[in-house]
């Protein structure tokens, strides 16, 4: 009986390890593909894969984060406001799925703010009042949840710059946030999760060069 129990536990452990390895492998393939996809069709194919991974791994938030990022990228591939909004809606749905698994997460909150910011960009004149406040609130909340999240500081800096351009004002506030983001990127802190978001350093460097130098 004891021998059978040990054998069963060994099988279960091996099965778990295999499943976990397959998850890591699938995510490791699809995350770079999401960033490199150059057309809506190609990007949708990657998003579909990530959605299937998310359904299969019901306790992991990462697939939903990258689905959200994929749909956010998709929104930028279209010109019409209704098409942009459609994909931003899907991005927000993906964030909410991730938050149901991992509440109060800095990366998901920053992504929520990014979606609000892109919603504003569709029509700044009519959406500025509503979505600027929502974006700022999410970025500030993301920083409060994790002050060392460079993406939250980067996105806040972009939002501050856009607001200064629209309302009038200098770039000092935005440059402070961007400099903070770059310093955090350059610290290159190790994470226990190899699938955690790592994007943003090059975009931060480009923004500093564009805005602050």
Task: Walk me through the structure.
The N terminus is likely disordered. The protein starts with a helix and ends with a helix. Helices cover 80% and strands 0% of the residues. It is globular. The longest helix is centred in the first third of the chain and has 35 residues. Helix 2 packs antiparallel against helix 3. With 213 residues, the chain is mainly alpha-helical. The chain folds into 2 domains: 103 residues, no CATH class; 110 residues, Alpha Horseshoe (Serine Threonine Protein Phosphatase 5, Tetratricopeptide repeat). The chain is built from 9 helices and no strands.
Salient structural properties:
213 residues; mainly alpha; Serine Threonine Protein Phosphatase 5, Tetratricopeptide repeat; globular; disordered N terminus
Largest sheet: none
Low-confidence runs (pLDDT<50, min 5 residues)?
1-18
Helix content: over 70%
What class, by secondary structure content?
A: mainly alpha
User: Which topology of the largest domain does CATH recognise?
Assistant: Serine Threonine Protein Phosphatase 5, Tetratricopeptide repeat
Using only CA atoms, what is the Rg?
20 Å
Distance between the termini: 72 Å
Note the quaternary state here. Answer: single chain
């Amino acid at each position: 009986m004891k021998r059978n129990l040990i054998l069963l536990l060994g099988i279960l452990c091996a099965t778990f390890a295999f499943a976990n390895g397959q998850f890591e492998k699938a995510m490791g393939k699809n995350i770079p593909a999401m960033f490199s996809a150059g057309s809506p069709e190609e990007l949708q194919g990657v998003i579909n894969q990530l959605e299937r991974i998310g359904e299969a791994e019901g306790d992991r938030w990462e697939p939903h984060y990258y689905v959200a990022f994929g749909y956010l990228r998709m929104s930028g591939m279209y010109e019409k406001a209704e098409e942009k909004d459609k994909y931003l809606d899907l991005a927000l749905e993906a964030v909410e799925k991730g938050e149901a698994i991992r509440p109060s997460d800095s990366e998901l909150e920053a992504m929520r703010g990014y979606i609000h910011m892109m919603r504003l960009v569709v029509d700044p004149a009519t959406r500025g009042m509503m979505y600027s406040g929502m974006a700022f609130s999410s970025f500030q909340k993301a920083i409060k949840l994790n002050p060392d999240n460079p993406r939250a500081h980067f996105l806040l800096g972009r939002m501050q710059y856009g607001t200064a351009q629209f309302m009038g004002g200098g770039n000092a506030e935005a440059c402070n946030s961007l400099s903070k983001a770059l310093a955090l990127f350059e610290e290159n802190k190790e994470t226990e999760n190899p699938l955690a978001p790592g994007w943003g350093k090059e975009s931060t460097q480009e923004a500093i060069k564009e805005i602050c130098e």
